[in-house]
Amino acid sequence: MAAFLLFLATVGSAAGQQDLFDVTTTGDGGTAYFATTLARKGTGEPTDYSNPSLTRIYKFGSEGLQLFLERPKVAVPPLTAPGGPPRFSNYFSLSRPTVSRDGTIVAITGQRICLGYSQDHFSNCDRENTLQTTLTGLPGGTSYVIGAGRLSGNGRYLLIYSDGSVTGSPAYVIDLQTGEEFRSGISLQFGLLGQGRIIADDGTVVAVIDKYLDIIRGTRGTPMEIGPYAAEAVIDSAARIVAYSQFDSYPSRSIRIYRIAEQSVISIRPMPDGNCHTPHISADGRRVMFLCDASRLSQIYTANTDGTEIRQMSRNASGVFSAAMSDDGKFAWYFSGLAELHRLNLDTGEDEERFGPTPQFGFNGRAVAGSAYFLSGSGFAGQVFTAQYPLPHSLGGVSVTVNGEDSPLLSVSPTQILFQVPWKTEPDAKVEVKTESSSPFDPRPFIFHSTRTAHGTFLTNPQSQPPVNGDDRNTLAIHQNFDALVTLENPAHPGEILHLYGTGFGQVDLPQPDGIPAPADPPARTVVPVTCWSWSTDNKTKLDIPVLYAGLAPGLVGIYQLDVALPATDLKPLMPLTCNGEGDSSNFYGSFAVKP
Fold this sequence. Notes:
By secondary structure, this protein is mainly β. It is 1% helix and 42% strand. The protein is built from one helix and 52 strands. The protein has a five-stranded antiparallel beta sheet, with no helix packed on it. Strands 36, 37, 38, 41 and 42 form a five-stranded antiparallel beta sheet that branches. Strands 44, 45, 46, 49 and 50 form a five-stranded antiparallel beta sheet that branches. β9 (118-119) and β10 form a beta hairpin. 47% of the residues are buried.
């Protein structure tokens, strides 16, 4: 059984949460700007991970990492009597920096919270703006415009594309030199906007709306039908060339280059059936940079906009999470899958790491004191480490605390940590990960709901890929003699005793120390008996499934074992199992293959 758990512990997954994002750069690629929810190590910077998060803007240039803009959160005032006006926080959550080519002007979007009353399924916040653009570096000093903004490369034009309200508002362009506004009446609130330049040096805006590519000049839009499933359009400084992504056949996407004057389109894709996306175009319209999946990881590619010289430029082992190209087309800044910051020379391929991995992690579901759980993410360790008993509190330079209490560690890999929640953990636990990372940022702590009673969950069979009949609950079940997993090729047999494994089955009758394998003689049984049942092949008869043992798995830490005896007849090929024990979740479910 230990070998099966070791297999599970070494299977990683990509980080579901990236706390460093919205990277952009100056025209020469000398300085990068980005947003983050994280605090720098040793600074005591406040954090708030509610929705929206307290987010700051940093820049990285010749002087290293510097805080560029932050805005302390001002809480929403209390509401007055029902039916009164809505209340607002300040625009404290900062994101989406865009910078002029010469680096002098920066536009940043701030978001605020609106708290109002609901009536007839509508809120009096629905029509209120929640977004604001902050402009730094203008001759008159910092200024503010309602709505989310994107800046042209020459710093003259600002596109306001969304005010954040539910009802939305038409987009418009402001000439920052004259103050003149150009209103086309076109709404980009729900458009699929590109991450690169979407507004040219003359104020022309490009966007994909439905199945049309809209070229918006002043107060007019010139739509061109390009078909469904296009997105992410960007434009060069002279408003001559547009790049966008489009599905060819799911899940394959290519990069399309559209020449406005000629109304011609070519397709760029470096590999058959590749998934290419997130284009950026140089100011002169000669080079396009984009991300394309290679071995299930995105890497940076470049090509000339005539379709020639397609080259893979990055070869990061963890892939590329997000990237931006300088307007001169010579450099890219990117965050890797490990949340490292890199600067990449797009002419030579020279790749410089500017700071090291920043651990990113998340946890889905509830946790129960005493049980073992996975934290999936990235940036944890450089290789796989597995522990010996008694379990240590530090492994491969990684440690985990739950409400400040050190947790025993079973294994650590670059993308996953298997840890035990201490037995004395109270509900609503705060999990923190500490590593030897060279990142300047502390990783985000994670709050999950925990309980000292039970919330049963079966472990998943690592060999049930793809899931049986599309069912994603194929339970880790072991044959009666502990000699093999139950699989489609080696199913359970009627009348057989199966050993099932999971977490959170409930309190046990023998007190257990943290990090020590559960005893075998006597075993630690659940205080509340677990009962299980299934359904007959005609779904009409409830079949009681005898439970021979429910308790901690002998010789393991944080894992429960459930021994059940299968009926001799009337079993489904994919047998569903429902069990009930102690806790705030009355039922937990499993399924496994059976030979009828």
